[in-house]
Amino acid sequence: MKIGFVGIGAMGECMVRNLLKAGYAVSVFNRTRERAEALVAEGAQLAERIEDAAACEIVITMLANDDATVSTVFDSDFRQAMPADGIHICMATISAELGQRLAAAHAADGRAYISAPVFGRPPAAAAAQLFVAAAGDASALARCQPLFDAMGQKTFVVGSAPEAANVVKISGNFMIASLIETFGEACALTRNYGIDPAQFLDVMTSSIFPAPIYKIYGGLIASQQFEPAGFKLRLGLKDIRLALAAADDKEIALPMASLIRDNYLKALTRGYEDLDWAALALVAQEDAGLKRA
Amino acid sequence: MKIGFVGIGAMGECMVRNLLKAGYAVSVFNRTRERAEALVAEGAQLAERIEDAAACEIVITMLANDDATVSTVFDSDFRQAMPADGIHICMATISAELGQRLAAAHAADGRAYISAPVFGRPPAAAAAQLFVAAAGDASALARCQPLFDAMGQKTFVVGSAPEAANVVKISGNFMIASLIETFGEACALTRNYGIDPAQFLDVMTSSIFPAPIYKIYGGLIASQQFEPAGFKLRLGLKDIRLALAAADDKEIALPMASLIRDNYLKALTRGYEDLDWAALALVAQEDAGLKRA
Amino acid sequence: MKIGFVGIGAMGECMVRNLLKAGYAVSVFNRTRERAEALVAEGAQLAERIEDAAACEIVITMLANDDATVSTVFDSDFRQAMPADGIHICMATISAELGQRLAAAHAADGRAYISAPVFGRPPAAAAAQLFVAAAGDASALARCQPLFDAMGQKTFVVGSAPEAANVVKISGNFMIASLIETFGEACALTRNYGIDPAQFLDVMTSSIFPAPIYKIYGGLIASQQFEPAGFKLRLGLKDIRLALAAADDKEIALPMASLIRDNYLKALTRGYEDLDWAALALVAQEDAGLKRA
Amino acid sequence: MKIGFVGIGAMGECMVRNLLKAGYAVSVFNRTRERAEALVAEGAQLAERIEDAAACEIVITMLANDDATVSTVFDSDFRQAMPADGIHICMATISAELGQRLAAAHAADGRAYISAPVFGRPPAAAAAQLFVAAAGDASALARCQPLFDAMGQKTFVVGSAPEAANVVKISGNFMIASLIETFGEACALTRNYGIDPAQFLDVMTSSIFPAPIYKIYGGLIASQQFEPAGFKLRLGLKDIRLALAAADDKEIALPMASLIRDNYLKALTRGYEDLDWAALALVAQEDAGLKRA
Q1: Residue A41 sits in which domain range?
Q2: Is ipTM beyond 0.85?
Q3: Residue B249 — left, alpha, or beta (φ > 0 → left; ψ -120 to 50 → alpha)?
Q4: What is the pLDDT of residues B148-163, one digit of tens each?
């Protein structure tokens, strides 16, 4: 089976390699052509145009944000190029609204569409250890499953409406951001009582919070190592905005997400946009009178 | 060595049993005498008066809150009854301010004081699997360590100022409350997109949040099983107030704790004080237009 | 001089009457034709098409929101119909972003554009007592001034970039919403201490807050008279969203506006969308355990 | 009639002068004796001890906060010194809880107690233009009315439970603090769009907010003149804490007050405690990336 893959970033690159390893023919397209070309040596075919990738049996998009995805799918002949039984899988973190829009556009064309965003950073992508949250038509999902297996360790089917998967992904990132803010405030408090953040983190992760996610983000916060960014603060803000936008579409409030959004904006004001999104915790500590180490 | 133990609640009862098992003589006092008497059959001695427990080499208090602790230590001859080399260990969740006050009062008397609150619910106490956060004078801590080993699985020494341990405990509970609020809001969002909370929880705890604490509280929230309460909502509010009070003593803001406090107050208004403190998540979901199952 | 007027709602109707009284020829267009026709008996001319209104020397749009304004100006030949020295004045409460977009589009066409939103409800519009916040090119503003004088009691020129006027208007509405929330919370507190809201309002407006705006909104809140709505709650939410959007465009946080937005969303959930936007205060009081009278 | 007056600060001094002008004999006590002595030349009598002031027919306390009031009334023979038909009027801004405690203590002694805090700054006190919010027993209030008339321009009786007056005063200050925060955020937004704060203030106070309180605080904020402080930021924080404490006693949330409290704490962290409490607006503007002028 031939797979099209649009968007060769830090994540996409790893995902393509795993598809190649699994024996798929992969046609890769990237706006900055060099990044796609680098994969040719590893067995990928270069798609000269977006439409060449879209013409494959299954085409995956893994682009930076909503704008790049809209531009790719709606401002080219992407949809027209898709075969009659083609499937478009969007694996990027996009808005619930765009998930709905893609689903509607493909449905109007008689094509299948799956939202399948992933949890995991580049090392997890490289190791084919991603978690995939997928939603859409059941038979299309069944056809995609072998690809998900090639790229990830587990797939969760969360519904038949594609945007459900986008909302799950967005909610997961909201939960991580909340963990960051919370640990930042807890460090602000305990540091004011003379407790070393690394020790506090050790107590917490050795007792009630023995999860890697606490060790990873708690470690960044305790050591104040926000560079180089694993995931930039501006992208963290983007995802919180997606959570609030998804909530707003349903006309509900998420007070904690509002608080986090406002604190991310304060972080931008302080010049932290290129730091890791864990630097949200820096705002909490600075607001409590503590200096950056 | 003879140990005094004041406060035979659901936690204290288990802790006394583990001290007895470890071979200590334990003199137990409880305001409601029957609860102390029940332990006599298991080998404890009944202290007729608070002072009888306080006269032991080491006396542990494990009372419900600040008021009960103050009443025990300051409104009786507790301190006068302590031997010259006696140690008072307060293992309850009390305020940082009371931790400081106890430390100062005992120091003025020439007695040792240790704050050693614990993480864990009654089943963990029964299994001697508590986590102990301890702070105070190093030599006194060394004398207490065998007792902590008898009651818990691990002890973290977080400083020499006793209130540091209280702040660590309070911060841990704040982090749990924040997890509850966050998961409540995330469920409010995902339920509005048709995603079943149990499934959402499964995705989260199978991927980025594979920690028991998420499974426990997420499970309560997803199933809306808030009765019987493992830890009552009113007590959760109490602990968030302790976090804010500890922050206020240092004149710092904890915005997320403020938000949680306000939502706990709304929960009281809705009559949820005797539900599990996970019912904080109910407020988030109701405010998003969702009914209690 | 001939004036085009698009958007004959409760406000626009009064504004047209005052232009007619001042001797202007007014060509009126409204999507629901009947509302425009009603003004013909009073001297207005009926514009059959949007373009007929736009062809006047000065064309005023007074539409419900961004969407209606965009549709009018960008989805018709509105701009092409404008004369070479024509001026478009948008007097509605629109987003800062749309203010900028309109300014840019008209500039590209070589036409003048003025943002001139107004403060005041229909009775003030009827009495030509509106306050006009205007911004744009100075010479165009000078040509518009007689019209503003015919419709309002005072004009404030707040800058040469049209969106400045939109931001001033949006900020004013944010300040009113904040007043509503604040008074709602203050009533929640004082009612819990047995103080009658009408009496509390009397104390406040007779002492430190002797402003009509406090009497008007405080009176609605104290008497819980939220119907009929002078300004619907959903529109209040819209304007708070505009404030947050304008802030977001500059990447700044407005924490109080975030709080108000979230509470307006809760009000929607409770079914209050058609009540007066002062019903925001109802949420504050309900959350404090008080029943609607 | 002889009046005792305890607490000769910037306010008390003016209030005593007005009582003297109205023909009352006033016995003044102040911890720092010199401030009381200065009034002797103007006709006051010096009370050597608190009890000498308390022995008058009516004794007024006008002290800085709860602690000073508690110390005066409960740590001296104040109550014992009061005559059988004596009345204690507390005109300071104290907590609702202390209002209740004073009422209960005096009731137990068979003495009358009135809470009568005032709105107004020293210039208003000097001009006998204060607003008095009074509560307590009706016959005692009737006896106090001539004194209120001598010191203020208007008295509002807000209930028979004395703490009602304290809550009204606290709520009024909360409303002012909210106005400050709101205007600070509005300036943060409008300044980011190039609008001069003085001009924005002029628009607002010339149109929908034509109240002196907006001109006063808006003027301080627009000109960033926070020194010398008319009312210090630390005292503003104190009053917000009183509002939250009064709410907490009734177990209700005041989300906006929580937000303001947190921002006042951030202001302390930035070293603004001795600035005018309007400097709360500085935090909002700094958090939006704006520098202090």
Answers
A1: 2-160
A2: yes
A3: alpha
A4: 999 999 999 999 999 9
